[in-house]
Design goal:
The structure holds 2 protein chains of 2 kinds. By secondary structure, chain A is of the alpha+beta class. Chain A has 3 helices and 6 strands; from the N terminus they run βααβββββα. Classes of the chains: A alpha+beta, B alpha+beta.
Chain lengths: ~160, ~260
């Protein structure tokens, strides 16, 4: 029996999460479109918004590789800035890599968008689609060549301060 | 397969399993020659159109009063654990925090060489090796025994066989969609049929040993007070919360070991 005292009698440690706001449509009971539904419902609305805007493939506000971002984390280092080198889009497992040069050492960090430690993403400089006023456009989706060319890294960082 | 983050913020992979209209079709009791008894509950899953089912199976499902199904499997139980025929099972049968074994056909890899199939080391990449860098090498001795031993490890078909992944933790249970989230990966392709059972090593063996010792607090894993008996049904799911998740018992990897 479901009582207020013990809603789930089989486990003392289990967490009871709120049921979905709208009941799921019938095809989901046969598993049709299940993973897409989970990608949309499992994370909190703010995190969902990150996936549909900043890290989507076609949204006008999406972050292009070559942008400079600052990420606020829940654990050390609390903030990390860097050039966006790659976005790995895998639904809930979406992650991105930022590269920076700190004390003459190249440092790369990979951040998972859905991680609870990722508090905030600030865009310091956008890499534009057309170049010029909108920002430089990178001709690659993955900028791993930056690892071998420090001069290009300096060019991008000079643009942030300038 | 997807990914989740626990209370400490550590990432772990999960596999999503769904119960598609699993119903009990028979309660089996067989008396062996030495008069011991075998009891089992037969469960059928995933509806199929009647025109694709054989007449024999149609008759079997009609006797049980359920729609024709694709998969019919048996689970050995104790004599007191029979479930009424026709009951629809639900995801609440599994308790978040318990361990399960998942059984399915593994991914087929086709005809594979000895290096992949048996972890042979192959031959050198250079230093005169000609055209046989990945081959098995010698397969026997000389005149004695003068033959190849039966069961000699050789190249052949790999995968596509029944495989069990043991001791997977159940993380989350969703009774609205009958979903079970287990930590880790399971054998087989996406949307394949799998069989989920209580873990033989981490649940059944542990319970048997502790029961024999008299340690009745340690029969079930940490935090679990009991399991639905004889089965978690749709009626039981109506009275329980819709989404239940297990907290992690591991320490936080982000804090130093104090």
């Amino acid at each position: 029996m479901s009582t207020a005292a013990q809603p789930y009698p089989f486990s003392s440690a289990a967490k009871i999460l709120p049921p979905p706001a709208t009941p799921p449509p019938a095809p989901l009971m046969q598993g049709k479109g299940l993973m897409q539904y989970l990608t949309q419902t499992l994370p909190s609305p703010d995190k969902q918004k990150l996936l549909t805007t900043y890290f989507s493939r076609r949204h006008p506000l999406r972050i292009l590789p070559g942008s400079v971002l600052t990420v606020m984390l829940g654990h050390a280092p609390t903030t990390f800035s860097g050039v966006l080198m790659s976005v790995r889009r895998r639904g809930l497992d979406t992650s991105f890599v930022l590269r920076n040069v700190i004390n003459r050492t190249g440092v790369e960090m990979q951040f998972f968008v859905m991680s609870p430690h990722l508090k905030n993403i600030k865009i310091m400089q956008r890499a534009g689609g057309g170049g010029g006023k909108a920002g430089r456009r990178m001709r690659r989706a993955k900028l791993f060549y930056l690892r071998d060319s420090p001069e290009k890294m300096s060019a991008i960082s000079a643009g942030v301060r300038g | 397969m997807t990914v989740m983050w626990d209370d400490h913020g550590a990432r772990f992979p999960v596999t999503v399993l769904q119960l598609e209209n699993c119903q009990v079709t028979a309660n089996i009791k067989t008396v062996r020659k030495d008069l011991s008894e075998y009891h089992a509950v037969q469960v059928a899953a995933t509806d199929r159109p009647a025109k694709t089912a054989t007449k024999q199976m149609l008759g079997h499902f009609k006797k049980a009063g359920v729609d024709p199904k694709r998969i019919v499997k048996e689970f050995p139980v104790t004599p007191d654990a029979h479930v009424p025929i026709g009951t629809t099972l639900s995801a609440v049968h599994f308790v978040p925090g318990q361990y399960v074994d998942v059984i399915a056909n593994s991914l087929g890899k086709g005809f594979q060489g000895t290096m992949k199939k048996w972890n042979f080391k192959g031959l050198r990449a250079s230093h005169g090796v000609s055209v046989s860098h990945r081959s098995a090498g010698a397969i026997g001795a000389h005149q004695d025994p003068g033959r190849v031993w039966p069961g000699k490890k050789m190249a052949g078909r790999l995968g596509g066989v029944r495989t069990t992944t043991q001791n997977l933790a159940v993380i989350r249970v969703d009774s609205a969609l009958d979903l079970i989230f287990v930590r880790g990966c399971v054998p087989g392709i996406d949307d394949a049929h799998v069989m989920v059972r209580d873990a033989k090593k981490k649940m059944i063996s542990v319970a048997r040993v502790n029961h024999a010792k008299g340690d009745f607090d340690k029969l079930l894993p940490k935090g679990i007070l009991g399991l639905p008996f004889p089965a978690g049904t749709k009626e039981m799911a109506k009275e329980l919360p819709s989404v239940i998740e297990a907290p992690t018992h591991r320490r936080s990897p982000f804090l130093p070991i104090s």
